[in-house]
Amino acid sequence: MPDKYFIDTNLWIYFYLDSERREDKRKQQQVFEVLQQPNVFYVSTQVLNELSAVLCRKYAVSPDKIRNYIREILSVAEARMY
Length: 82
Fold this sequence. Notes:
Blueprint: E1 5-6, H1 9-16, H2 22-35, E2 41-44, H3 45-57, H4 63-76, E3 78-80
Parallel strand pairs: 1-2, 2-3
């Protein structure tokens, strides 16, 4: 059985933002590699809430786009309530 990963809020932010910084690209690639393996990571309600808040307040991402991101995450993650 493969290891299970927990992807924290900051990594999701890197994944969904367009950034040209090399360090951001490296983190984005790490998340992408984990996502290539279905059902090997967890996501918590807290992380989804934090992601929504940061994308909306700090980066002015539209609510519709944020909802799509959340749906995308939930379609491939094992959700954990904590």
